[in-house]
Design goal:
The protein is α/β, with parallel strands linked by helices. It is built from 6 helices and 14 strands.
Amino acid sequence: MASELCKTISVARLEKHKNLFLNYRNLHHFPLELLKDEGLQYLERLYMKRNSLTSLPENLAQKLPNLVELYLHSNNIVVVPEAIGSLVKLQCLDLSDNALEIVCPEIGRLRALRHLRLANNQLQFLPPEVGDLKELQTLDISTNRLLTLPERLHMCLSLQYLTVDRNRLWYVPRHLCQLPSLNELSMAGNRLAFLPLDLGRSRELQYVYVDNNIHLKGLPSYLYNKVIGCSGCGAPIQVSEVKLLSFSSGQRTVFLPAEVKAIGTEHDHVLPLQELAMRRLYHTYHSLLKGRPLLVLWLTAAPPSVCRLLTC
């Protein structure tokens, strides 16, 4: 296996390959053959999925200076090292399904990065330097242990797809509404109790998924004309305990949804809206105008409903 690996890397070096596939090799360490001498100067895409890597070499950028895409899906990497920040041409970084606990602040130096995938790890927070990724278009941080989102995330002006499903988020920062390019936002399976009122105001945002947030009982009005996923939100309604309201017209009776609950009974007296308004006006100005001629003039011009109120 080792000889075959060395041969594969040697051929890639001699023939100046731009793509190198080292998936499913049961690698526990980064191959030394990749790092010896000048490395692979022409390599642009490195695939090392489903191995057993636990770390990345500090001289990775020195040996692979032209790397554009790095796929490390399904390994055992615990820390994204500082050296990652030196891969200045990197546009795609996939570290999904690892054991990540820490992402170093130097990740903010990847100014060309467009796609960052950190799903299914052990992350409790992300560094604020993520906000320095001005070209970032896709960020997948689903299935982690995040309590909050990066405080400067709204500075990722190119961000189009944000996935934070299955974390421990209690709220969504209002500054997230400032993302000008965001088209799809998925926050399913968190602990959200409310959403910012401005969420959905942007015309670019078209898809919002908040499924299975059991504490979430309402949506901002701006989301009503978007594509929404919200199944499993709010406490379930026990229809058997709710008196269904209805209204009738002729021989037809229409029942209202179970969510519309009765207030009081059908025998309770409800004042007309005009009368409620007039009563409020009367009590507001009564103390100011009491005993003054102006009150008499105002009453002579008032509608009959107000006059009836004064005699109550």
